[in-house]
Amino acid sequence: xxxxxxxxxxxxxxxxxxxxxxxxxxxxxxxxxxxxxxxxxxxxxxxxxxxxxxxxxxxxxxxxxxxxxxxxxxxxxxxxxxxxxxxxxxxxxxxxxxxxxxxxxxxxxxxxxxxxxxxxxxxxxxxxxxxxxxxxxxxxxxxxxxxxxxxxxxxxxxxxxxxxxxxxxxxxxxxxxxxxxxxxxxxxxxxxxxxxxxxxxxxxxxxxxxxxxxxxxxxxxxxxxxxxxxxxxxxxxxxxxxxxxxxxxxxxxxxxxxxxxxxxxxxxxxxxxxxxxxxxxxxxxxxxxxxxxxxxxxxxxxxxxxxxxxxxxxxxxxxxxxxxxxxxxxxxxxxxxxxxxxxxxxxxxxxxxxxxxxxxxxxxxxxxxxxxxxxxxxxxxxxxxxxxxxxxxxxxxxxxxxxxxxxxxxxxxxxxxxxxxxxxxxxxxxxxxxxxxxxxxxxxxxxxxxxxxxxxxxxxxxxxxxxxxxxxxxxxxxx
Length: 479
Known about the structure:
With 479 residues, the protein is an alpha/beta fold. It has helices at 7-18, 44-58, 96-99, 139-156, 183-195, 213-227, 251-258, 276-280, 288-295, 299-333, 338-425, 427-432, and strands spanning 2-4, 62-73, 79-84, 89-94, 111-121, 126-136, 173-177, 200-203, 232-237, 264-268, 283-284, 437-439, 457-461, 466-470. Among the domains are: 2-25 and 42-150, CATH 2.40.50.140; 166-297, Rossmann fold; 432-470, no CATH class. It is built from 12 helices and 14 strands. The strands form 3 sheets. It has a 5-stranded mixed β-barrel with strand order 2-3-4-6-5. The protein has a 5-stranded parallel sheet with strand order 8-7-9-10-11, with helices on both faces. Strand 5 and strand 6 (126-136) form a beta hairpin. The model is unreliable at 1-32 (pLDDT under 50).
């Protein structure tokens, strides 16, 4: 790996590459006495390809420190930016898959370390740095990256309270992910041995500081998950500087903790320290010692509590037995001789049977008497009702004939009146007085002489018969 921090080093590296035996350079300032020879020119794409191969071979992986003078993310997800320092700048590109792994949101003005390879953008013949990772430099930039990662993971729900699981009351096996040689593992083992020595502890060691720490921690968790015998897991380390705890803010570690199948207790640093791993875990402890205390109870306390519960159970059982004996004795005194109870019950049944028989006979006699009385009354009432009904029918028949006769006479009278009125309005009555009706050939009634024309044929209708006439002349109808 070649780390480049200024343009001068890049120039020196390029000069070093130019001296490599894989390329040869020719200049125009040849000796005039040398016989001229024909030169074969290179195509532009060939030249760009040679430069690209040279740069990629010499700068296949570089770390460059600089400031983002511009940063743009295309809709495709690819990022394009310019990395510069006081005297030089270089165009950079980061593809979408690499940009997804960014732990912060870069912006112009941020100082970053860029990891990538140098090549040539053939379409424009421009040297370009193809970045695969960006890391902010300085406490402010690192904090911004941490806050950005925290907001993103919070939006995904990795820190939700409803995801937290309760710790087992009495775990049989505890998994521990920490450094094999650190103070944290010693504190955890000492605390577990002191509080509950019968509990098993499985250590899955990992480096908890440095660039390899996130990968080591994820691997250790994966080994514990494959082991599959743990009831709870403690992950953490002792205190240190903020940068020493950076592994527990790594996205891969946080996601591994959140996805672990059994409850996890995070114990990173001291009381004042707080990491994203603490937020993703099911329980957070200030120190590894506090984590062990929250996972296992004190055996002596359990024995004492069990003794107290046993004493309470025995006392409750004795009181229950005494109460039951007292209730049995009390009820036993109220019990009678079973033979005497059966005899009394039989006598009571005989008495009830005799009372039932007497009651049925009395009810039968009463019902017979009431039935005879009701039959006599019904016969008497039936005769009177038939006589009254016949008289009523005869009266109604007379009233009906009288009403029908009166209605007939009223109808005859009304018919005669209506006929008289109709005859008075009939045009035939007018014809009886000597008038006639005049109609045209199309059947229309002639009401005025103005409707007639000379020589027009009209039809005349009299009371009896009719005639056809021709109009000789017409008047204005004033006379």
